[in-house]
Structure formats: C-alpha cells, structure tokens
Structure prediction request, 326 residues.
Amino acid sequence: MMKSKMRVFCWFLSLFCAIRTEGFSVRGPAMPLVVQLRASVTLPCSVDTPLPLLELEVQWMREDSGTPVHLFQKGESRPESQSPAYRGRAQFFSEEISKGNFSLLLRNFTTEDKGLYKCVVHDKYESSETKVKIDIERLVVTGAGMPIFAYAGEDVVLNCSVDTHVPVKELQVEWIKTNGEILVLLFSEGENRPESQHERFRGRAEFFSEEIPKGNFSLKLRDVKSEDRGEFMCKVHADRESVNATAWLQRQGFSTLHLCVLGLTIAAAAFAVISCIPALWYINKERQEKIKKEKIKKESCPSRGSVTDEDEEDGENLMSNGRTMT
Prediction:
C-alpha cells in the first residue's frame, strides 16, 4: 500500500516537473517599431498561457540605462515605481493582463524615448523576457486623402504637409505631375525655385511661402485647365530618406461663375432681340400706312395731262357754237 502511494506521488511530481520544465516564453515584435514624434505607440509583450496574477511580476525598463518604465506586481500596476520621465505617459492595458498580454502603451513619443526596451516577466518559478527597439520616423508626409474637384478656370489647393524634426533648409520638396514626370514646383536649399518649373505651370503654381516654416508645402494652382487633370505627387527628400504623398485633381466642366456669365450673355442677347421686335413692328406699320395713303391719293386725283373722249366731244361742240354765232 505504501509503495503504491509513493508511485502515485512520484508520478504527479514527475508530471509537475515536466510541466514546469516547459515553462513559458515571452513574445515581442519581430521588427523594430518606427514611431512619429508626439504619437502614441504600443510596445508588444505577451505569453501564450495566462499566468496567476498574484505570482506574476512584469517589469518594463530601458535596456540601455535600466530606467524603470513601469511595473506590475502582486496583482496591480505600480505607477509609483516609474521614472518621472514616463510617469503619466506609460501604462499597461489592465484588462488584458489576466489574458497574458503585458503590452505597454507609451504616449506623446519624444526623441529621448528612442532606444531599446526590455519586458521581463516573472512568476513563482522562473522568468523570461523580450526586447523592443523603437526608432523615430524622421519624415512623415501627408497629402489629400480624397480626389480634389475643380472647375475650369478656378484656383485649387493640393495639400502636402511634412512632419519632421529635420530643419526646413535641409529639405527638398518637389511637386511632380506624374503623367509625363513634369516638374510643377521645387523647394530646395531653403528657397523656392520657380525658374525650374515647367512652362506649362509657370506663373500658375506656387507655394504658400509663409506656411513653409510650419511644414506646409501645399501647392496653389491657378486657372485650372483640362490638361491639369490627373495625379500630382509631393516628393520630400531629407538626407537619405525620401517620402511622398499624392493628390488627385478631377476637372468638372465650367465653374458656377463661368455658367453665370454664359447665362447672362444669353439672357442679354435674348433681351436685345425681344426689345427690337416692337420697333420693327412699328416701322413696318408706318411703312404700310404710308403706302396705303399714297395709293388713296393716286386714286382720288387723276393726272392733269390725260384727255378723255368726253373732253374731246365737248371741245368740238364749243367750236361749232362759236361758228354759228359768227
């Protein structure tokens, strides 16, 4: 009986040891994270099988300096353990910890946050860790998300904003009409370069000069033409980096102003024609009246030079009477 109990105990002990030998592994990202300045980023850290919370301890720290970023211990977060540089900016996803997710949310990313981080997970028996590297995205270019519609003859703005800590003077910005690779506008060595424009856009395309120091390289295109329709690309170069954004320009016939002018022209022409009708009618009436009067006058007053048969007979009778009296 005693031997039987010992066998059962040894079997459970060997099973327990086998389970613990498997342990747990901590998973992180396969690639470095690239983050924009002032943005938020999630640093992944998780295990496949949830661990008992009361036996769990999770430490986030800087690998290079050992600076404590955050701590989960004895079933709860310990913000008082954070370095002042991360206090109020780094936090766990509390509802996810019980599921084995120990990822960390870092808000308002700064240049000082760049570097290597370490997530160390402990339970009662062992520990495991993963590392997360964060790099700064030095160049972020944003364009128009939707096509831009413009009428012939109108002015239009194609958006292009640059978010970077690279000095503006070190940037080169090109606006290209992709159909034909036509250079629309160029900013280089801290200045606009209008002399480099293609003649098709000379005098029609320009930057908002006062907005350039703010990273706004939007393009103002005047007097939109039918051949302007299509894709425009804003290319931004800094050191070895090159990022671009696109904008689509869709042309839509004539503008409201053009239609109004056309409508007024047609209306003026129609008014002129209608205004002439009474005058033409009056002139025609006067002419008809004049013709009628002349006709009546001719009928009532025969010509004096004409002699009828009765006049000749009366003349002969007068001459005959004159001879008798003689």
Summary: The first helix runs from residue 2 to 22. The first strand starts at residue 26 and ends at 27. The helical segments are 2-22, 94-97, 256-300, 309-325.
